[in-house]
Protein: NB-ARC domain-containing protein
Organism: Streptomyces sviceus
Amino acid sequence: MHGPSGPGMRLRAAPAAVPTPASIWASEADTGQVEVRDMGRRTGGRKGKRERKAAGSGRLSKAPEVPADGQSSAAADRGIQVHRTGNASVNGDNSIAVSGALTVVQPPPEPLRWPQVVGNPPTTASAFQERPEVRKHIDTARDRHATVVLSQVLSGGGGVGKSQLAAKLFWEALAEGTELLVWVNAAYPGQVVAEYAQAAQRVRADGADGEDAEADARAFVNWLVRDECRWLVVLDDVTDPAMLAAWWPPASMKGLGRVLATTRRRDDVLRGGGREVVEIGSYTPAEAGAYLKSRLERAGAAHLRDESETELTAALGLLPLALSHAAAYMINENVACGRYLRLFTDRRLLLDDVLPQSADSEGYGRQVAAALLLSLDAVRAADPSGLAVPMLHLLAHLDPAGHPGELWQSAAVLRYLRARREPRRRLLRPRTSPEQTYAVLRLFHLYGLIDDDSDTSNPSTGNRRVVRLHALTARAARETVRARDLSAIVRAAAEGLAELWPEVDQTDPDLAVVLRANTSALAECAEETVWAEEEARLLMWRAGTSLLDAGAYITAISYWEGLVEQAERRLGPGHREALLTRSNLASSYAQVGRTKDAIALQKRGVADCERELGTRHRITFIARANLGNSYLQAGRISEAIALLEQVAADRRRYLGSRHRDFENTLVNLAPGYLRVGRADEAIRLLEPINARRGRADDPNTLTVRYMLAQAYLFCERTDEAIPLMEQVVADRERQLGTDHPETLAGRTSLGSCYVGSDLSREAIALLEPNVRDCVRILGPEHPTSLETRAHLAGAYRKAGRRAEAVAVLEQVVADRQRLLQAANPETVQMACMLRQWKREQRSRRH
């Protein structure tokens, strides 16, 4: 149907369709003008007229005054007024050709209704944990600032529950009466612009006409400044703070607005502009346990809970994302905690097998492995050196709790990284510098893949666990390693850790603890390759001797027992490394007083070493010397002296009189001489060694001085014995710590010196607390504990406290007879002394 037209109208090919009164089309050749006018008063911050340029029109001008006549009643009913004439044409049904000026009268808009919700925030997670400590930090920050940025502090980046926490705060704000709530996926600036433009339309911001998204978005930002209502804008998953700077909502002038952002980034820019960073980590153990319990019980699956529940949450790294997927898997497959833990720790299964996409019941939208490594592509793009991937692969094989930053300056690690760089031809590859590795570590930290606490001005600080990687992120990274690359990674890690290990652990005990932990982590996650690489096996031996040096004898026994089983199975019982491992296990037995076990294992070891390696091999010498020391401890003095004298003679012949191994044999021989009354010979052995060591205070030298002080005491040269032993104890406390077994033994010997010098008060003051420490640290049956109690009995007797002396010595003798057999020479001597004390006590009564 053709609508009415003014006089002088001609038909043309170009149509001007009017589908509704609010949409007018006119030809460019139209000599008239078109106007769309809003005749009502607008609300929501926009006043006066709204003028739109109709699509296809030439220009826009104000409508002239509407004459009283010349308007059809039909047009008036539709709110359309036509003025002036011109040429126009129209084709097609339901079209109107217009020439002249039109006024379209629209009804007034509906008033804005609050609240307004823009975007698609996630629903609150099942079994959501309130995380009171985190909420406390957020509330505190909100009180200080209008803008709060949520950023995780633990490495691993994704999966710590930032978005879920933000969603919880979003819905709480809605329930509290906030009028405008906007949820923005802020991963890309284009998404931010689109959401802001939509929000501008919803609040009818001035200047937002729907035709230019960026202009509308800017209009929304300007509208927020005015604080016309209470508002909350959530910027979820900010990936590039610098690019988002232009679209960051302004600080609330009246305190009505608030911005909440989530990000993996740690850029300093996030702390500017009135913002405050609240660091978000994984669940606490209590929160993780509460989540799993609630999730299973709400699903009617409480029967899946068992004694492995706590171990399972720890294996999942307390990570909310992983816990969510694991709980869904357990519910769907009816798998209990213990069985799922076995599946999860099965190295043959990938993370995506045990935390599959199908278990994403909370709508995270990503598989766990992909979510954890999401930032890696950004790091690679920002890393000109090309070191990101090989560094992450090496990181993934170390202790998640942290490793020293100096590792990335070690020659072994730098060689490994150079070999992984392009080009493939080795001579053309650029060298890798410590500065480059440090720069990549900072990139990892910036993008939330790791935590790096290195001093920015000096990466070689004294901190030990400065570089940390979440355990699940490490596993996800390991699963991307090609099989052919694993050997190089293990060798680099092993050699790099060995480079950092001090020759004497006691010079840096904290470092030794961290290196042992990283050795265990490497062996655990690449066991087969570790046993195939000699460098890695040597690192495991070093960790075991470190346990002995630290005095952790019980732990050392468990460690060496495991190594003996593995070495004999993988290398063969006659392999030199298997023989050395067995010798170290025997030494651990001796250190805790299990002399029978030690001697049995050492005798077998000596025979095996002589058969497999020969009588002159260094490992054979070590095995024979250790057996001699165990004979001494068992009271088999003559056998000990004979064996140690033979070892000393052989070492002198083959190694020389100044070799440390020869000197150490003499030091071990000295206590045997003391026990058979050859104290002068012991002094002749020890004094030249002590003189050659000079002012050194390493543990071996302290042992020399300790034995020399003992020899002086046997010769009743107490004026020399006491000051030397006091210095040894002070040095051991400083170097080894007050609870180290050698420190405890030193205090016992010093107490014996005091007893021998009739300083019973000083002896009791020293020995009473030392007995308690020995029992607490070493156990009541340890040789040092028995010896300390015997010397305390002697101190009581010297002080006239005879009844106490008899009671203490009586218990010592009973324990020694039970543990070391009644025929042990020292036990026999103590039993004789006890009978004498009892006779004296009875005679005094009569």
Observations:
- The chain has five domains: 1-109, 116-280, 285-372, 375-504, 737-845.
